[in-house]
């Protein structure tokens, strides 16, 4: 299905359901603060989704559970398997209650609802536990709100069965709800959301080199998201592969630090029939749930601009103890921004034939001087020929941030024509404006945008390219040798001179004058001695280099590379415009004053 068709379908379903669910929160006014509404609305949304999906086999499961109770010697794991088979899903509810039956006994709503919760399979109970729902149930019941909330979720318009709300739409409903609740917290930009147009582009870039092979023969792949949020990136990648080939099989793995979004991700995974045990809760940086795993695909939008103080101890222990055998061997970035730690985590977890698409902001391109950890991380990635391409995305593409963002494509096995090269793609002008903003998201990548970026990526040529369908959509591509991004920072001293202007020597070497130390940035592609003779000595005859202090650095000056000089307007033209404006002002004032 084309993105525009998906968006049309999604806009209808999402707005209806999200508005309906959001309005239920009006019953919580006074009892909860606005930023606490999610503690109730999100878990109840998940439970109602499960309830509607299980409705068709509900009575069979209840009957089967009663029959199994008559055989107390049966193994619990076997019981679990039987009930899942009966339900037709990898989860079930064996309680005699469902949302509809709960409304038949308002006097005992709390005890009946708790019975309903205890009837779920253990994997759903884990989800309920991470929502910390038990405390909310008591609060709601004690204040006469539990029955009302269940009643509202039981309305005809709140039907969330699969034939009413697709998995893709349900993901958007969750994201829209979380966005509203997160705004009440004023949480960090982009903490939970990556719009599907971005994910579709990332997915296409991930599979591009082997798309034809997948079309012909299908595939069996693994995919990992180290900051999965509600797992929509993994879900969209799965959708894309299935779109390419019905014989494409994707096993997904993800980790998420936020308990609520982890619970939603696990719920979504259960509903879609994936292995929910591959969804793990915890901090990826200090509680890695996938040590020793490697994956075919990694797709992720980790937090940026967020400090890693709480993970500092564990990260530094791993760095000092394991070095390159661990995840962070190339270096540790500044404590104020941990996004490059996620980048390194992904590199470590890639198979030798694996590919990663990861979002980073601009600081990963240039932060840090030569010899600093950010520079050393870039050096490691580029000198090991892991960086295949970086795509600059349009501003205002994400829900909660308008800053410049980039997709880094990392692979451990480049195709022959890309070996030793890095492609930079400026797609900042490749977008269509939205009719209605969603938070900070003011633009979209439609099918034409994604097709053009893919065409430029696959073409691996330099130039400016426009869409056949829309000439306003423009993408520019440039290709560089890896060494282009490296430089040597050379320390330059000025020799002390005596009264006769002669250099003072000590052990045959010039003595450096105090306070006159400088440095030169010499591209790796240039000879340092030749550079020094051409660019330094003509201006300082007593300069000399202290090569013992050389430091190699790497940066990716994306903005400078794609900068377009715009000649300033001539002063005469500006003056003429000023006179014309002044004359117009005088005319208007006379008109206003009636002169």
List keywords for this structure.
globular, three-stranded antiparallel beta sheet, 22 helices, single chain, 595 residues, alpha/beta, Rossmann fold, 3 domains, 18% strand, ten-stranded mixed beta sheet
Gross morphology? globular
**Helix content estimate:** 40-55%
Let me know the number of strands.
Answer: 17
The span between the termini is: 65 Å
Which radius of gyration do the C-alpha atoms yield?
30 Å
Query: Unreliable runs, pLDDT <50, ≥5 residues?
Result: 186-190
Number of helices: 22
Biggest beta-sheet profile: 10 strands, mixed
The whole-number mean of residue pLDDT values reads: 91
Note the beta-strand portion: 15-25%
Main sheet: which strands, in order across? 3-2-1-4-5-7-6-8-12-11
Number of domains: 3
Classify the secondary structure makeup into a structural class. alpha/beta
Can you put this structure into words, describing what you see?
The chain has about 600 residues and is of the alpha/beta class. It has three domains: about 5-180, no CATH class; about 190-360, Vaccinia Virus protein VP39 (Rossmann fold); about 485-560, no CATH class. The chain contains 22 helices and 17 strands. It has helices spanning about 5-25, 40-55, 60-70, 75-85, 100, 110-120, 120-130, 135-140, 145-155, 165-185, 195-205, 210-215, 230-245, 260-270, 310-320, 340-350, 365, 375-385, 445-460, 530-535, 560, 570-595, and strands spanning about 220-225, 250-255, 280, 295-300, 350-360, 385-390, 405-410, 420-425, 430-440, 440-445, 465, 475-480, 485-495, 505, 510, 520-525, 545-555. The strands form four sheets. The chain has a ten-stranded mixed beta sheet with strand order 3-2-1-4-5-7-6-8-12-11, sandwiched between helices. A three-stranded antiparallel beta sheet has the order 16-13-17. Strand 2, helix 14 (about 260-270) and strand 3 form a beta-alpha-beta unit. The longest helix is centred in the last third of the chain and has 23 residues, at about 570-595.
């Amino acid at each position: 299905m084309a993105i525009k068709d998906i968006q049309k379908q999604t806009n209808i379903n999402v707005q209806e359901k999200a508005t309906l669910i959001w309005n239920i929160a009006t019953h919580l006014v006074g009892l909860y603060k606005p930023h606490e509404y999610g503690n109730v609305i999100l878990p109840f949304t998940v439970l109602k989704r499960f309830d509607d999906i299980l409705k068709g086999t509900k009575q069979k499961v209840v009957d089967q559970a009663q029959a199994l109770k008559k055989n107390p010697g049966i193994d619990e794991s076997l019981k679990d398997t039987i009930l899942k088979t009966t339900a037709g899903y990898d989860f079930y509810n064996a309680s005699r209650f469902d949302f509809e039956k709960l409304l038949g006994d308002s006097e005992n709503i709390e005890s009946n609802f708790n019975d309903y919760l205890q009837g779920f399979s253990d994997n759903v109970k884990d989800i309920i536990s991470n929502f910390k729902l038990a405390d909310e149930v008591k609060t709601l019941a004690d204040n006469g709100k539990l029955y009302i909330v269940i009643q509202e979720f039981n309305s005809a318009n709140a039907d969330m069965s699969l034939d009413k709300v697709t998995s893709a739409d349900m993901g958007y409903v969750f994201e829209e709800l979380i966005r509203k609740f997160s705004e009440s917290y004023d949480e960090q930009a982009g903490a939970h959301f990556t719009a599907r147009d971005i994910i579709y582009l990332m997915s296409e870039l991930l599979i591009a080199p082997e798309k034809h092979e997948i079309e012909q023969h299908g595939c069996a792949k693994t995919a990992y998201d180290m900051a999965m949020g509600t797992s929509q990136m993994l879900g969209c990648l799965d959708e894309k592969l299935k779109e390419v080939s019905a014989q494409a099989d994707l096993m997904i793995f993800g980790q998420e630090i936020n308990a609520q979004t982890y619970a939603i991700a696990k719920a979504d995974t259960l509903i879609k029939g994936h292995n929910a045990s591959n969804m793990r809760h915890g901090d990826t940086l200090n509680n890695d749930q996938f040590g020793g795993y490697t994956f075919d695909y990694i797709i992720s939008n980790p937090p940026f601009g967020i400090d890693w103080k709480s993970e500092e101890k564990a990260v530094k222990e791993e760095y000092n103890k394991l070095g390159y055998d661990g995840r962070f061997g190339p270096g540790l970035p500044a404590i104020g921004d941990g996004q490059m730690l996620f980048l390194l985590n992904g590199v470590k977890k890639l198979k030798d034939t694996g590919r990663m698409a990861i979002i980073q902001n601009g600081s990963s391109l240039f932060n840090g001087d030569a010899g600093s950890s950010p520079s050393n991380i870039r050096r490691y990635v580029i000198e090991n020929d892991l960086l295949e391409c970086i795509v600059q995305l349009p501003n205002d593409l994400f829900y909660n941030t308008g800053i410049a963002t980039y997709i880094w494509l990392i692979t451990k096995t480049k195709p022959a024509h890309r070996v030793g090269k890095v492609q930079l793609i400026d797609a900042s002008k490749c977008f269509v404006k939205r009719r209605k903003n969603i938070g900070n998201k003011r633009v979209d990548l439609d099918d034409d945008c994604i097709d053009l970026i893919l065409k430029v990526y696959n073409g691996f040529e330099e130039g400016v390219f426009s869409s056949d369908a829309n000439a306003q959509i423009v993408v520019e591509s440039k290709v560089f040798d890896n060494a282009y991004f490296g430089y040597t920072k050379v320390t330059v001293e000025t020799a002390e001179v005596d009264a006769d202007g002669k250099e003072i020597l000590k052990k045959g070497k010039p003595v450096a004058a105090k306070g006159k130390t400088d440095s030169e940035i010499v591209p790796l592609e240039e000879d340092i001695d030749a550079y020094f003779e051409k660019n330094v000595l003509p201006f300082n005859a007593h300069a000399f280099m202290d090569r013992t202090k050389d430091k190699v650095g790497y940066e990716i000056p994306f903005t400078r590379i794609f900068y377009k000089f715009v000649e300033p307007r001539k002063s005469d033209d500006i003056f003429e415009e000023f006179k014309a404006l002044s004359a117009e002002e005088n005319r208007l004032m006379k008109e206003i004053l009636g002169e």
